[in-house]
Amino acid sequence: MKKASKERDKMDGKPVSATYVEMTEIVLPNDANTLGNILGGKVMHLIDIASAIAAHRHCRRPVVTASMDYLDFKHPIKVGELIIIKASVNRVFRTSMECGAKVFSENLQTGEHKHTSTAYLTFVALDDKKKPMRIPPVVPETEEEKRRWEGAGIRREFRMKQKKRLEQS
User: Fold this and answer.
1) pTM of the model
2) CATH 3.90.1640.30 fits 3-168, yes or no
3) Can you give the pLDDT at residue 166?
């Protein structure tokens, strides 16, 4: 067993639930395009903030965003509606971790909720010298958390293969 693996095995894992973040904001005209829908960049910004908080909560260290992928906009969120972002750490790798974020809208007049977006982000934890550092494992407890943990491994493998292909071209 490598030294790094031994060190990581000694780290105490934290449950996924300890990383959970929920942010809610009302969509104002300043957040919207000319159609009255929230700007995609604003949604991305809020996803990044919520996910960074989840990552920071997990490792209790500063984190930087390494990537965001698989972001689809399924439904618009209108001015006057709420945007709700739910984020948590899905899986930890050596010095990085994947966070998943789901975005919902809530119509305050009707109470209707819609799942509008999902995104996956990778964060790197930094030590006091601002260098990548090892991260304690995250422990999935529910079936849903275990499914997301498995999915994070598949997505990471895909990202690594894609990166390798791009470097070779």
Assistant:
1) 0.89
2) no
3) 87
Angle in degrees, CA 165, 125, 98, rounded to 5: 55
DSSP state of 59: H
Q: Which token pair is 119?
A: 């995104």
91 CB burial (10 A radius; 0-12, 13-18, 19+): buried
Handedness of CA 18, 121, 56, 11 (dihedral sign): positive
Question: Hey, is 61 helix, strand or coil?
Answer: coil
| Average pLDDT estimate for 3-27 | 80
Domain boundaries of the chain, sorted by first residue: 3-168
Confidence (pLDDT) at 2: 47
Q: 8 pLDDT band (50/70/90 cuts)? A: very low
Q: The dihedral of CA 163, 116, 59, 152: what is its sign?
A: negative
Alpha helices in the chain (DSSP H): 3-10, 40-59, 143-168
Instruction: Identify the CA nearest to 68 among candidates 25, 103, 99.
Output: 99
Residue 61 has pLDDT above 50, yes or no: yes
Place of tokens 């910004």: 45
